[in-house]
Specification:
The longest helix has 26 residues. The protein has three domains: 259 residues, 2-enoyl-CoA Hydratase, Chain A, domain 1 (Alpha-Beta Complex), CATH 3.90.226; 221 residues, 2-enoyl-CoA Hydratase, Chain A, domain 1, CATH 3.90.226; 42 residues, no CATH class. The two termini are 28 Å apart. Helix 12 runs parallel beside helix 14 and helix 16 runs antiparallel to helix 17. Strands 1, 2, 3, 4, 5, 6, 7 and 8 form an eight-stranded mixed β-sheet that branches. By secondary structure, the protein is of the alpha/beta class. It is built from 19 helices and 17 strands. GO terms for molecular function: ligase activity. This is Acetyl-CoA carboxylase. InterPro entries: AcCoA_carboxyl_beta, ClpP/crotonase-like_dom_sf, COA_CT_C, COA_CT_N, MCCB/AccD1-like. It holds the Pfam family Carboxyl_trans.
């Protein structure tokens, strides 16, 4: 039998403590999500509704097939910055007429939907996901263009948005723009470079320069409608392919456009799958509040994979990394999960071999993070930890099957890289509220700085200020702690969202379904699998 057992005791005091700590962190995340959903606040929401317009998320809800999920991406973008949480843009994956699509929607209640630097980063990440997974893109447009106060951070990199649209189209990935309001200046190129364009009567305004700019530049007097209104573009310029009488009509027409795309997934959905043998609610009590304390990742695996069925690979070798095969919502996956935090040479070689096997079999990989990094020390350096860690990182870097990453606990140092952190292009990366990620732990980093400062003082023959050292260490620990928290990292788009552990199976299932829209093919390289 390969069904995982469990040693988790939901009635224990330890479990209760861990669950309480996780729920407290979840409450903080939900409060931040609430700010994103609130957009510009009551005043600007009321003003938007008074104009007879739908909110961004209402537009998405009407666009998607009834009773289908929407996997929102980067909802905490700009958290901790001077800009509104969510970055005035909603992005995510949803189903339209049975087709999984990447949907973006400007939030016009936040500074008129104007784009700030985090909006740009969020939009570029959405395009990256669409391109890698071959997802049709539907853009629900209502934006005043770039927030001019931040133009120095938007103008030059912002051109990539339009490049992305043309690359998507050239790759045969459909792009659809639905214009509900302003789409001006550079924003006019979103409908201009999309395959299909729908505009709303007396609402859409698409022009390179509005009446004031035209007046300043040419002296010409003009009005919004004759310069860039929906009817003009439908009758005269030809920019609009479809003319909608109102917002619901625009969304209805968008659904018909998607229905006529003749779009097919590379691999059909596998159908119903057996649920895990254990309650997903128990995922709340697995990760300890103190990440120095180990936990068994098999307890997590048992609560997210089909039937809790897991064929472990090399279970007696390199035990601090659990590797093995499973299915998740019917899709095959290879799983790498940190067991005791530290990666040694054996774990690194085991991972490299396992990643090669997954590429031979065209099986996506799931990385479950809880690592403090690769082991240090004279014995381990002499034993080749650098070259063995390099094997693992090399294998991750050159693997061609899709990768999914979930940060459950610690994700420090080069271990973050070896476990396919953001820089290694996972198709999707999510974090639990319990996760932390940095170059190393706060205490370790502060301690290193202290040791270096002591050595410097000794070399100069100067006395060492112990009081100043204590103050410096406390300050550094506090800074690194705050910068390693998931909401801080999510705000900078180092992940695709902070998720409730109980939603992990569902989120990963949606991701696996989306990525199978594109072919899943591993790297071969002309060699057989090396036994490392």
């Amino acid at each position: 039998m390969t069904v995982l057992g469990t040693a988790l005791d939901p009635t224990s005091a330890e479990y209760a403590e861990r669950r309480t700590a996780m729920l407290a962190k979840l409450a903080e995340v939900e409060a931040a999500h609430g700010k994103a959903v609130a957009g510009g606040g009551e005043k600007y929401t009321a003003r938007h509704r008074a104009r007879g317009k739908l909110l961004a998320r209402e537009r998405i809800e009407l666009l998607l097939d009834p009773d289908t999920p929407f996997l929102e991406l980067s909802p905490l973008a700009a958290w901790g910055s001077d800009y509104a949480v969510g970055a005035s843009l909603v992005t995510g994956i949803g189903v339209i007429e049975g087709v999984e699509c990447l949907v973006t929607a400007n939030d016009p209640t936040v500074r008129g939907g104007a784009s700030n630097p985090w909006t740009l980063k969020k939009a570029l990440r959405a395009n990256e996901i669409a391109y890698a997974n071959r997802l049709p893109v539907v853009s629900l447009v209502e934006s005043g263009g770039a927030d001019l106060t931040g133009q120095k951070e938007i103008f030059i990199p912002g051109g990539a948005l339009f490049k992305d649209l043309t690359r998507l189209s050239a790759a045969g990935i459909p792009t659809v723009a639905v214009v509900f309001g302003n789409s001006t200046a550079g924003g006019a190129y979103v409908p201009g470079m999309s395959d299909h364009v729908i505009m709303v009567k007396e609402r859409a305004k698409v022009f390179l320069g509005g009446p004031p700019l035209v007046k300043m530049a040419t002296g010409e007097e003009s009005d919004d409608e004759s310069l860039g209104g929906a009817e003009m573009h439908a009758r005269t310029s030809g920019l609009a392919d479809y003319f909608a009488v109102d917002e619901p009509d625009a969304l209805r027409q968008t659904r018909r456009v998607v229905a006529r795309l003749n779009w097919r997934k590379a691999q059909p959905d596998p159908g119903p799958a057996a649920p895990p043998a254990y309650d997903e609610d128990e995922l709340l009590g697995i990760v300890p509040g103190d990440l120095k304390a180990p936990f068994d990742p098999r307890e997590v695996i048992a609560r997210i994979v089909d039937g809790s069925d897991f064929d472990e690979f090399k279970p007696l070798y390199g035990p601090s990394l659990a590797t093995g095969w499973a299915e998740l919502h019917g899709y095959p996956v290879g799983i790498l999960a940190n067991a005791q935090g530290v990666l040694f040479s054996a774990e690194s070689q085991k991972a490299a071999q396992f990643i090669q096997l997954a590429n031979q079999r065209d099986i996506p990989l799931l990385f479950l993070h809880n690592t403090t990094g690769y082991m240090v020390g004279k014995e381990y350096e002499q034993g080749g930890i650098i070259k063995h860690g390099a094997m693992m990182i090399n294998a991750v870097s050159n693997s061609r099957v899709p990768h999914l990453s979930v940060l459950m606990g610690a994700s420090y140092g080069a271990g973050h890289y070896g476990m396919c952190g953001r820089a290694y292009d996972p198709r999707f990366l999510f974090a639990w509220p319990s996760a932390k990620s940095a170059v190393m732990g706060p205490q370790q980093l502060a301690g290193v700085l202290s040791i270096v400062a002591r050595a410097s003082a000794a070399a100069k023959g100067q006395p060492y200020d112990e009081e100043a050292d204590a103050g410096l260490r406390a300050m550094v620990e506090q800074q690194i702690e705050s910068e390693s928290l998931p909401m801080f990292l999510s705000g900078r788009l180092y992940d695709d969202g902070v998720i409730d552990p109980r939603d992990t199976r569902t989120v990963l299932g949606l991701c696996l379904s989306a990525l199978h829209t594109a072919p899943v093919e591993g790297a071969r390289g002309g060699f057989g699998v090396f036994r490392l």
